[in-house]
Amino acid sequence: MKIRSKSSLLETPINAHERLLVGALLAIVGGYLDAFTYTCHGGVFANAQTGNMVLLAVNMFGANLKAPINYLAPILAFAVGVLLSEYLHRRRRFFGAFLWRQAVLVIEMIVILLIGFMPTTFPSLPINVAISLVTAMQMNSFRRVLNLPYATTVATGNLRAMMENVAKVIFDHDRKALTHVFHYGSIIAMFVLGAILGFLVSKDLQNAAIFLTLPIFLALLIIIRDHKKFEGGSEL
């Protein structure tokens, strides 16, 4: 079955994991988990390692010192997560019908299940490390939406790409770029929505708040199970 685009601007076939719906759902998770770790686990970002690097530097050389390991450990875990996703990618022939990207999502779900059952007294450091590792795997495994490069767990690159396309619309009168502006804008909006939800829910539910991401992962596993290519489009 093919999904027909409402516009002919994007005609290149895309894989199921590159659909805009997939990108939007992953962006919600990315924002949600960042807000979760920042709210419940010591002001550390799950995904934004640039922020953690700044906080690491500030806490190493600033007046109010905290343990630098609180920021260094998630950074290192993120790096390891990228390596693990690259390993799974290279071993994809052994997954058969079970896509290697689905394996990444299943690993992320398992980690989230474990964290959700942790008591509020459980130390934040291992939780931040685990989330940084699996979100790095997610970010490195899902890198394109509708044939456009994007990030599922941070917004800076998406914002830059969106404004680059805004410039093409304004200065070059490129109508195709307007569609790209919509796509990037949708991803950014979903990331912000996820962050808002993550903050609001985490305040009350603490670690159990992470369970709310599980239905999204289940939906993603269903959506990307198909190996077929789809026509590009702006459908959500």
Write the layout of secondary structure elements.
Blueprint: E1 13-15, H1 20-40, H2 49-61, H3 69-90, H4 100-116, H5 124-141, E2 144-145, E3 148-149, H6 156-172, H7 175-205, H8 214-223, E4 229-231
Antiparallel strand pairs: 1-4, 2-3
Helix pairs in contact: 1-5, 1-7, 1-8, 2-3, 3-5, 4-5, 4-8, 6-7
Residues in β-strands, percent: under 5%
**Cα end-to-end separation:** 17 Å
Total separate domains: 1
Provide the residue-averaged pLDDT: 88
As laid out across the biggest beta sheet, the strand order is 1-4
What CATH calls the topology is Growth Hormone, Chain: A
Outline: globular
Order of helices and strands: EHHHHHEEHHHE
Radius of gyration: 18 Å
Write down the CATH class. Answer: Mainly Alpha
Number of strands: 4
How many strands, which pairing sense, and closed or not: the largest β-sheet? 2 strands, antiparallel
